[in-house]
Amino acid sequence: MFEFDQYLGFLAFLTILTIGFWLMIFLLTFVIPYWIGGSLIERLKERREEKKAQRLES
Fold first, then answer.
1. How confident is the model at residue 57 (pLDDT cuts 50, 70, 90)?
2. To 10 degrees, the CA torsion angle through 12, 13, 18, 20?
3. What's the pLDDT score for residue 1?
4. Integer Cα distance of 31 and 53 in angstroms
């Protein structure tokens, strides 16, 4: 069915596919929500600081 080099290529393909699959799961469930949440928190902090600065000026 397979020769040895074809078998190794198939195993390499499955390994790369599996690593890519778990990397995408990790990115979509942890990294991207963490990134978006952190940027929203930073934006809210900046707005609060701007409002404080405007209150102190007037």
1. confident
2. 110
3. 80
4. 33
Q: Is the confidence at residue 35, as pLDDT, over 90? A: yes
* Tokens 């778990």 sit on residue: 22
Overall residue count recorded for the chain in this entry: 58
Q: Taking residues 36-52, what's their average pLDDT?
A: 96
> Hey, what are 42's tokens?
């930073």
d(CA 8, CA 14): 10
Q: Which residues contact 10 (CB under 8 A, 6 or more apart)?
A: 2
**Cα(50)–Cα(42) distance, rounded to whole angstroms?**
12
Residue 47, token pair as written in the block: 């707005």
